[in-house]
Amino acid sequence: MNRGKVAPKVTKNRFARMYKQPILQTMNKGKTIFAQVMSLVNTYEFKKCVNRYKGDRHAIKFTCRDQFMVMSFAQFTDRSGLRDIETTLNLCSPDLYRSGIKAMPKSTLAEANEKKDWRIYQDFAQFLIRQAKEAYEGQKLRLDLDEMVYAFDSSTIELCLKLCPWAKFHHERGAIKMHTLMDLRGSIPTFVHLTEGAVHDSKIMDKIPVEANSYYLMDKGYLKFDSLYQHFHLNNAFFVTRAKENMLYEVIDSREVDQSAGLCSDETIKLIGPLTSQKYPDSLRLVVYEDFSINTVYRFLSNNFKLEALTIAELYRERWQIELFFKWIKQHLHIKTFYGTTKNAVYTQIWIAICDYLLLIIAKKHYMLNPSLHSISNSIGQVLFKRGNIKDIFNQTDLTANVPEGDGPRQLTLW
């Protein structure tokens, strides 16, 4: 026995680093793409959410997990209704077992959407948000900023008022609003709040979770000075929004700007309106920028006085990412056909779609997929039951996005 040498200790983490990728590639060879994406669902955390609302209390054959799998399949493959889901599942029966999906009658799925509490999937989305933020921690923005940058906006999803009388909007129309705060480092929706369509955007501002020294980008629909002052400024958070044309103010100071870069002015101002001056008593920064490509002038309002004036304008430009999120949710994750009309059924479908979006974000990082998130979400329905390693399939296939990404004047059109 050799007493002079001690075998190196292999820790669990070291073992995982050494063998994780080869084992992963070997195990995934016979799995479908859908099964590999759904393998990222943490069973323990999902079960905790189900038990919290007693989701499987009367379940005999079909559980909340089965509902989640079928609804995710319907979202990814753009099913047009409950009958379409049932028919497609029956036609795909040879692939269902390998993908972990049970063929579910449309009446059973309709009942599950009506009765199983939508908050199960809302709570599970919160876990996936934390997981996604952890996966993308340290990722850099296009702008060289160390602070967190968030964009806040809303999107209106129209519904038939006769079928959904609970979703009141205006002019005899029905709708709900999805108010979303997005972490721009990974296009991660960190806060989602659903309301009736008639609720004004500014009423949700006080519900936004605020972090000190972070940036919050908002459209002028959120220009509510008391909330900007009390909820953001006093909590040491920075905001960038757009000023309204009728805003009353006086100029306290003015700084030189580079007009060749499109900057018109950079001023320190104070509000002088009888109400606005009380709601926001501190100084504000007003940066005026002209987009030469479309001959449009923008007036940006912020409480940050340290960034370069051009950076303020560039920050607001980053809001285009949240516009893409709403487009993905409505079109590529197919919240354009609802599989139920009650509030519970509609909210269930929206939250499962958000969970699916988050799973794609996590899958892109976990499996090291090269295509953009938009390309992956746009094409996954075509390869859902394809067997093989997900990394090989996506990284060796030409998945050209039909919505361009990157820098350019296109982003400015979303202001």
Q: Which key phrases capture this entry?
A:
415 residues, alpha+beta, disordered C terminus
Number of E strands: 9
Largest sheet: 9 strands, mixed
What is the approximate shape? elongated
Report the mean per-residue pLDDT as an integer.
84
Q: What is Rg?
A: 24 Å
State the oligomer: single chain
Ranges with pLDDT <50 over ≥5 residues? 5-26, 400-415
Measured by DSSP, the beta-strand proportion falls in 15-25%
Helical residues, percent: 40-55%
What distance separates the N and C termini?
A: 74 Å
What is the ordering of alpha helices and beta strands?
Answer: HHHHHHHHEEEEHEEEHEEHHHHHH
Structural class: alpha+beta
- How are the strands of the largest sheet arranged? 3-2-1-4-5-9-8-7-6
Structure annotation, total helices:
16
How are the elements arranged and paired?
Elements (H helix, E strand, L loop, with lengths): L11 H17 L4 H6 L4 H10 L11 H14 L4 H10 L1 H7 L6 H10 L3 H17 L13 E11 L14 E10 L4 E9 L18 E4 L6 H8 L5 E5 L6 E7 L7 E9 L4 H4 L4 E8 L4 E7 L6 H9 L2 H13 L10 H24 L6 H7 L10 H6 L13 H4 L3
Helix pairs in contact: 3-8, 4-13, 5-7, 7-13, 8-13
